[in-house]
Amino acid sequence: MNKSQKNTIKNLRTNILKLSHKAKSSHIGGCLSIVEILSVLFNNILKGFSSRKKTFKDTFILSKGHACLALYCMLYEKKILSKKILFSYGENNSLLMSHASHHVPGVKFSTGSLGHGLPVAIGSALVAKNEKKNRKVYVLISDGELNEGTTWESLMFAAHHKIDNLCVIIDYNKLQSLTFVSNTIKLEPLTKKIKSFGCEVKNINGHNITQLKRALIFKNKKKPRVVIANTIKGKGISFMENNIAWHYKSPNFLELSKALKEVNDA
Amino acid sequence: MRKIFIEELILAAKKNKKLILVVNDLGYSVVEKFAKMFPKQFYNAGVAEQNMMGIASGMALEGYHVFVYSIGNFPTFRCAEQIRNDVDYHNLPVTIVNVGAGLSYGNLGYTHHSLQDYGLMRLFPNMLIASPSDEMETKACMKYIIKNPQPSYLRLSKGKNTSLHKKIPNLKPGKWLILTKGKNKKAFLTTGNVANLAKKLLLKKKFSQYSIFSLPIWGMKYKEQQKNQLNRWDSILVLEDHLEDGGFGSWIKESVNDKNVKTKITSKNISKKVISKVGSEKYLLDNYYLKFFGK
């Protein structure tokens, strides 16, 4: 991992912690699990950044809209979002609500209800493919979204139409809102299941930069690509990792200090 | 109306490659010509309405005008949240076309009746509701929607309609169109093909002096325009092929209050007793609508 990637990741975790403490907002666990994914996407994968428009030519949709704080922090790292806007998170009348909003610079689509981002990403990818534009579409979904019928409807449609400019990243942190994924609706054998829907599947460690870079680069296979990113909910903070409480909790002052120290020492 | 819709869509698609038609495995004998002429602008999303509406939104997000064609509850209630969050909230040019207005699919039963659809579509702040009374209004609505792409709902009846207008009317959202000029200060206000029923009602003595108006384009954005139009009349009787709750009549009543309008506003709606009843559209309308107008 190079120094700048390391810095981005550290800054993301620091700001996620500080802002969810300040705003007393939830979903910190699912924000921390996607830090590396976002960092690789925005630093290495998304192409065609226009500094004037502050957007990429490639499309990114955060379907797990409840993790918008991680995205907002990433947009701040890329200087798409100002510090003033970022640090208004959680305040009354702020531009930043606790689910992704298209009113925020750099956010393509509003999400918050699960199962919406993938169909929209498919529509966007399909027209880009038809126009023979070299535009790729990335959509980051949660493992909880695999409970939604739309996810499977969409995967079948994407495979049928050979939408090979689409990459679906699953943040497979294995914890949902109430309990573990395996205790909610059994997903395994996930790789086999998604392959059988007609997609190309990569099963990787979602915190490993090299693996992420490799998995997120397209090779034309005439199939949509699905990256199962195995992650840890609450990643990077020992007392938050794999702990269901941190789906909803926000850190108090003591917990924040302890967590920030862990990020600094990492 | 379906025929007019697809003809207008074909005309528009000839000029605009960024116009797309999406269906959910429905549209037999209606959509084939379009699909053949514009294979790259036609998609059958299969029997998966939520995905269909999401895909339509994704295409619209990239600058396409997407028409989603289906029946009754499938492109509306079945994917209500996709309409709310994806289409309407993002103000995207997706036109939802429902060919089963009211009791159009009478014999197919309650699952195929559109009796609550206004109630749903009225809830969305950006949604334009287009409910034409005849073929001329259907043409006018299509031309308006194609010229002004936006979240929109086009409600069409299945069968052939008698022509109420001699030529394509000049439409303005929220503005009433006159169909029949009466002799007193009382009028029918209709939306959709129920205007045909108003014509029949004029034959009854108590309504013989009434005027008839059609309001083909309405929705939350156009509520404020109703007050002045209502004020010109002593009494307005709203007709619609929809249940009372959440319907067009409720919308008209909500658009005014007692202080700013003296007009007496009443509405006649399909009786909720129609639920679980089967029959042709005419049979159901005769028994669960027209009989409440008296002799």
Structural features:
heterodimer; A: 266 residues; alpha/beta; Rossmann fold; 5-stranded parallel β-sheet; 11 helices; 5 strands; 41% helix; globular; B: 295 residues; 7-stranded mixed β-sheet; 5-stranded mixed β-sheet; 10 helices; 30% helix
Short summary of the structure?
Chain A is of the alpha/beta class. Chain A is 41% helix and 11% strand. Chain B has 295 residues and is an alpha/beta fold.
Description:
- Chain A is of the alpha/beta class and 266 residues long.
- Chain A has helices spanning 3-23, 28-32, 35-45, 68-77, 83-86, 117-130, 149-160, 181-184, 190-196, 209-216, 253-265; strands at 59-62, 137-142, 166-172, 200-205, 225-230.
- Chain A has a single domain (3-265), classed as Rossmann fold (3-Layer(aba) Sandwich), CATH 3.40.50.970.
- Chain A contains eleven helices and five strands.
- Chain A has a five-stranded parallel sheet, with helices on both faces.
- In chain A, α6 packs parallel to α7 (149-160).
- With 295 residues, chain B is an alpha/beta fold.
- Chain B has two domains: 2-155, Rossmann fold; 177-293, Rossmann fold, CATH 3.40.50.920.
- Chain B is 30% helix and 17% strand.
- In chain B, the strands form two sheets. Chain B has a seven-stranded mixed sheet, sandwiched between helices. A five-stranded mixed sheet of chain B has the order 7-9-8-11-12, with helices on both faces.
- Chains A and B meet through α6 and α7 of A and α3 and α4 of B.
